[in-house]
Structure formats: C-alpha cells, structure tokens
Specification:
Number of strands: 0
Order of helices and strands: HHH
Structural class: mainly alpha
Low-confidence stretches: none
Oligomer: single chain
Distance between the termini: 53 Å
Radius of gyration: 28 Å
Shape: rod-shaped
Strand content: under 5%
C-alpha cells in the first residue's frame, strides 16, 4: 500500500502500529545477536589469553627449574603459535 493510499483511507495509525511492532522485533533480534556475538568473542579471547598465560607460566617454570634459556622458551612459544595459525 502506498503512502497516498494510507492517507486516503485514514490508515496512518494502523500503519504506525505495524511499523512500531516490526521495529521492536528487529531490535530484539539485534540485541540477541549482539549478546551472542559478544559472548562468543569474549569466550574466544578468554581461551586465547589463558593459553598465553599458561605457556608463559610453564616456560618460566622450565627456565627456573631445568635451566632452559629465555630464548629457547620464546622460540618454542612462537613456533607453537605460528603452527596453530
């Protein structure tokens, strides 16, 4: 229905209500999509940075307890990271 027909048949209120309902539906869908996206990215980043922390922690334990050098630990860490990409 064109805007001229809406005005001619006094359907403005009905059209505004239908449009408002569609806007609310779109807003709700976008909010859920944003929530899902944010949680997914947040979980990914948590796992990513926790794995970094674990690798650095374990590397420091190897340096202190078994005499590895920092360069050796970093080489292995970067090799694992490059391999995982």
């Amino acid at each position: 229905m064109s805007s001229n027909q809406v005005a001619a048949f006094t359907g403005e209120k009905k059209s505004i209500e239908a449009y408002s309902k569609k806007l609310k539906d779109a807003y709700t869908a976008a909010a859920f999509q944003g929530l899902g996206s944010g949680l997914g990215i947040g979980l990914f980043m948590l796992i990513f940075f926790c794995s970094y922390a674990l690798a650095i922690f374990y590397g420091s334990k190897l340096i202190v307890n078994q005499g590895y050098t920092g360069g050796t630990v970093l080489n292995v860490l970067f090799a694992v990271l490059m391999g995982s990409m």
